[in-house]
Amino acid sequence: MSAILHPCAEEARFEPLALARLDQVLHVEQQAYSHPWTRGNFTDALATGYEAQLLLAGDELLGYFVAMQGVEEVHLLNLTVAPRHQRQGWARVLLDALALWSRGRAAQWLWLEVRASNERARGIYEAHGFRRVGERKRYYPAAAGQREDAIVMSLHLC
Question: Which of 75, 133, 72 is nearest to 108 (CA)?
Fold first, then answer.
């Protein structure tokens, strides 16, 4: 039996999302969410030129983010930490990288939506400095054909 290195034993690094890694991303996405992004969502984001970065340790996918640049702002569309690597600080690493990338593009604001029921994610965003600024009614799909509200949050980068 071969030894398995814990991801923390290898240096974590960022890498742009390439189609060659899309199956790996989709596997994590499907594990992490009841209503995951589809292959089409990711390929459309890449084709449009959105920023999509993977956080890897060796060949292990720790997490990723997809963001859209606007005029003096960036909108976070998807931030995911692989379920087996959650509660280890990787979301903060991803958010730090996103903020750094955003500042490099002269963005003044970061925006996101998060499910109203996702208290853990909201806590991570708040700890990172994001503030609740609004709500989008019935924004997300939910179980049994229902819809769930989104909390709109923003972070001033200056």
Answer: 72
